[in-house]
Write a structure and sequence with these properties.
By secondary structure, this protein is an alpha/beta fold. The chain contains 7 helices and 10 strands. Helix content is 35%, strand content 27%. The protein is globular. The two termini are 22 Å apart.
Length: 219
């Protein structure tokens, strides 16, 4: 499903070069649940954002369902992203000018789903994450944990084939965190591919495979 070939990323600092990813060669199979782990600064989040096509300033080859992402124009990459991915950001990335309801509706509007069906899907998501009472509030009226729940609901709402999650339970208390991981586990059992960055051994235990990064290399 996803194949990375000799992926490298670095930043130039005058005469010196700071490497973030080095010779990443790996594959992700459809239906896998993979955890990316390693110390701070290992390149975990960089790799995840590369997979999510948020960052294209790298060298190497990236294939998604056989399509060469590294050769695609920005518009075509965006279409691929909308079709296949949901992303849970560590810092939420909710739209401050939109209510919780509107934030959840946005990904559905990209997929040409009729309004009545969108309303039903959003209502189900609000109920599933127990945030019905928050639907008319704006992100700045929510706690960090509540914002994270909305962000996770938004990533899942369009039933993407692949969920990318950057420390998905980092801002949740342990009970909420376990609930989210159980939801991920259920989605994965239904065929959704999940790739998460985590420091948590407990969260990593839900995955079927762990990729360890250190100094930008796969160990």
């Amino acid at each position: 499903m996803i194949r990375l070939v000799n992926i490298e990323k670095y930043y130039d600092h005058g005469p010196t070069r700071s490497w973030v990813l080095r010779r990443i060669n790996t594959e992700f199979q459809e239906g896998e649940f993979v955890s990316i782990m390693g110390p701070s600064g290992a390149g975990k989040s960089t790799l995840l954002h590369l997979l999510g096509m948020h960052d294209m300033s790298w060298a190497g080859e990236y294939y998604l369902y056989g399509q060469p992402v590294h050769k695609l124009a920005k518009k075509d990459r965006q279409e691929l992203y909308k079709r296949y991915f949901g992303f849970v950001f560590q810092s939420y990335h909710l739209l401050d000018s939109l209510t919780v309801y509107e934030n959840l509706d946005i990904p559905l509007s990209y997929r040409n789903i009729k309004k009545g069906e969108r309303e039903s899907i959003v209502a189900d998501a609000l109920d599933r994450f127990q945030i019905v009472g928050k639907k008319d509030l704006y992100p700045n009226q929510l706690s960090g944990g509540q914002q994270q729940l909305v962000a996770i609901a938004r990533a899942m709402i369009a039933s993407p084939k692949i969920i990318l999650a950057d420390e998905p339970t980092g801002n949740l208390h342990s009970g909420q965190g376990k609930e989210i991981m159980e939801i991920f586990k259920k989605l994965n059992s239904e065929g959704t591919t999940i790739i998460q960055v985590t420091h948590s051994e407990a969260n990593a235990a839900y995955s079927s495979r762990i990729i360890n990064l250190a100094d930008g290399w796969i160990e």
